Amino acid sequence: MKVDVYATIKDVEKEKIRHADAVVIDVLRMTSTVTNALSNGAGKIRLIGDESKARKLSERENCLLGGERGGKKLDGFDFGNSPLEYTKQKVSGKAIVMTTTNGARAAEAACGAKSVRLCSFLNVYSVSERLKDSEHVAVLCAGTHDLFSLDDCLCAGALCSYLKADEENDLAIAMRLLFETHKGDLTGALERTKHYRYLKSIGFYEDLAFCLAMNTHEKVPVMEEDGWFV
Ligand code: MLT
Fold first, then answer.
1. Dist. CA 114–CA 135, nearest whole Å
2. Which residue has the CA at smallest separation from atom 9 of ligand 1?
3. 102: Cβ below 6 Å to ligand 1?
């Protein structure tokens, strides 16, 4: 198996991932939120980068609408991007369109790969189990506004640590080594990072604790042919 980790989606060339199993990571918070929503029984989730396209799709399909800009819920939306909002009671059996600043764009960038799955610390072991027979895994870290984000890359390192690939690109090696050093204290490793501090400053402290708990979920969101994640 070969694993390539990409720090941001601007580093990803469509042609290079066409035959790969893609894994999208946006730890804080999109991939954690979608994993929790589907674990809580949501029927299907569609990720759209553009806000107005997301609004139109949710109207056309008559489904719920979730997501954020600047980490905050948008006017007229049913949900923000906090995983804790997506409870069984609210999401069971529902189709949800979501738009988020970085994560949804990363999911769109992964379209066209052989398969597309969503990974976070919540489900990283389960993701590795689904990929154990893959020949090529391409890990797309969402990053923040096209810049490297340590939370996503550290989670990519956790995935690499489970996958034990024969071949890894340099970022995969670096992040695997970093994860192995810090796996006992993910909060300690991430609490000074920009997006962690920002989410804390706008009141999402509980989300941070939730998103940094490892392997609490078995659900692995996977993109179907029609672009919806189930
Ligand atoms: C994103 O997609 O940029 C994030 O999930 C932002 C957030 O933490 O809400």
1. 11
2. 71
3. yes
What pLDDT, on a 0 to 100 scale, did the predictor assign at position 31? 98
DSSP calls for 21-84? EEEEE-TTTHHHHHHHHHHTT--EEEE-SSHHHHHHHHHHTT-EEEE-BTTBPPTT-SB-S-GG
Query: 101 in ligand 1 pocket by Cβ < 6 Å?
Result: yes
pTM recorded for the entire structure: 0.98
Separation of CA 102 and ligand 1 centre (Å) = 6
Exposure string for 44-79, b = 16+ CB within 10 A, e = fewer: bbbbbbebeebbebbeeeebbbbbbeebebbeebbb
Ligand 1 pocket test: pick from 24, 28, 74, 108 the residue with the most ligand atoms within 8 Å of its Cβ: 28
- The whole-number pLDDT of residue 60 equals 97
pLDDT at site 203: 98
Kindly give the number of the ligand 1 atom that is closest to the alpha carbon of 103: 2
Regions of the chain with pLDDT less than 70: none
Q: Please tell me the predicted confidence (pLDDT) of residue 63.
A: 97
Q: Is ligand 1 within 6 A of the CB of residue 49? A: no
